[in-house]
Q: What sequence folds into this?
């Protein structure tokens, strides 16, 4: 089965991910089982916003527990509206990093102490730069770090490439890797064997964490609107916003 395309995800029916019977059977995992006390956590996001969509609740809990945090944004996300005169890449390259700052502020992240690295890689086509990404990510890793990034089979080319590059970097340095499905939850049939259900674990979130995460996602104003003049729907479609309300995040261990 081929994963849904971005355009299909944008138009997809709400709450489609809940159709998979395996979802209810995913066991919960305690945060201290994922991240040892005192460990540094590195989040590698292919595009601005992926860190919130993938683990916005987890970030809040890690920050509260005092874990040192480092965010690596591989691209600036400026190719999210191809062909748009309303949202050209030149505008988005400025706007999207600003939206990320506001989103992290809404999550309650300590912006004064959060280490934030911007990779400067070009949005889309990251698979062609996988080796360079691996070296770049490894440069900022330390042995014993715990790294969260997008799943290598998420169904988005950039997400997949960053997942593979992160895995290689972790292997080189001796860091621990966890993967986050984002687009994968909007495939037409998650009951497919393509989802590694045996690796999936739920990190429970309280009501306040879910609310802050949803509030943070709404900081990405450019992603909440498309460009009707060229038939471009919003990237953060209603189907994605509904999923943010789930009282858990799923990590592949």
A:
């Amino acid at each position: 089965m081929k994963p849904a395309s971005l355009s299909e995800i944008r138009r997809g029916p709400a709450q489609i991910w809940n159709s998979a019977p395996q979802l209810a059977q995913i066991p919960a995992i305690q945060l201290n089982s994922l991240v040892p006390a005192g460990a540094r956590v590195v989040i590698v996001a292919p595009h601005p916003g992926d860190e919130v969509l993938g683990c916005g609740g987890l970030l809040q809990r890690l920050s509260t527990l005092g874990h040192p945090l480092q965010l690596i944004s591989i691209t600036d996300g400026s190719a999210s509206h191809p062909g748009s005169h309303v949202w050209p890449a030149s505008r988005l390259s400025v706007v999207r990093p600003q939206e990320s700052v506001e989103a992290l502020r809404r999550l309650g992240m300590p912006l004064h102490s959060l280490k934030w690295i911007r990779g400067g890689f070009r949005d889309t086509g990251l698979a062609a730069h996988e080796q360079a990404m691996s070296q770049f990510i490894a440069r900022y890793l330390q042995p014993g770090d715990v790294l969260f990034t997008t799943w290598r089979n998420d169904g988005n080319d950039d997400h997949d490439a960053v997942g593979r590059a992160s895995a290689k970097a972790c292997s080189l340095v001796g860091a621990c890797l966890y993967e986050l499905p984002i687009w994968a939850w909007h495939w037409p049939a998650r009951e497919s064997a393509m989802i590694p259900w045996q690796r999936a674990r739920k990190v429970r979130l309280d009501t306040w964490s879910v609310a802050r995460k949803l509030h943070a996602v709404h900081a990405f104003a450019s992603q909440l609107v498309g460009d009707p003049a060229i038939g471009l729907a919003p990237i953060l479609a209603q189907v994605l916003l509904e999923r943010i309300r789930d009282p858990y995040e799923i990590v592949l261990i």
